[in-house]
Write a structure and sequence with these properties.
- The chain has one domain.
- Helix content is 45%, strand content 17%.
- It is built from three helices and five strands; from the N terminus they run αααβββββ.
- Strands 1-2-3-4-5 form a five-stranded antiparallel β-sheet.
- The protein is elongated.
- The two termini are 38 Å apart.
């Protein structure tokens, strides 16, 4: 691909103004709260699955194993929890932001600062978007938005 060709995969789905991005933060925060619960449960169930696997080894997969039914139920619940987390990530994407780190609650929005296409960067706990970074820099390259 030459420099003059457009990489469709790199084309932003939506470019936000600062006000538009700040306007959907309550929705994003609600999705993160849902993710918190699903993530906590996935960790708990994953630990239980791991405990059964450690105790029984491969025998846990045998239907005759005394704990097999519990193991199968927990594996199904774990799968459901992980799918729920994936569904939350898809919902965030549908809002137009990019989920960068679900554990930190970090999302980016395409936007313009001084005429340059950048990421408007928000981390959970911040009252509004106050930082931006270049498309290449990532979180360590965050700079304050000057208003």
């Amino acid at each position: 691909m030459t420099d003059t060709q457009l990489d469709i995969a790199a084309t932003p789905k939506r470019i936000f103004t600062l006000e538009e991005a700040n306007g959907i933060l309550p929705q994003i925060d609600a999705v993160f709260r849902e993710m918190d619960a699903k993530s906590a449960r996935a960790r708990e169930v994953g630990d239980l699955v791991g405990d059964l696997e450690s105790y029984w080894g491969k025998a846990i997969e045998d239907a005759r194993s005394p704990d097999h039914a519990t193991y199968a139920r927990l594996r199904e619940e774990l799968s459901s929890s992980l799918q729920g987390l994936n569904d939350c990530a898809i919902r965030l994407n549908a809002l137009g932001c990019e989920l960068k780190d679900p554990n930190r609650g970090l999302v980016d929005f395409y936007g313009y600062v001084n005429g340059e296409l950048v990421y408007l960067c928000w981390q959970r706990g911040e009252q509004e978007i106050g930082f931006w970074h270049t498309l290449e820099a990532g979180f360590p390259g965050r700079k304050p938005i000057v208003r």
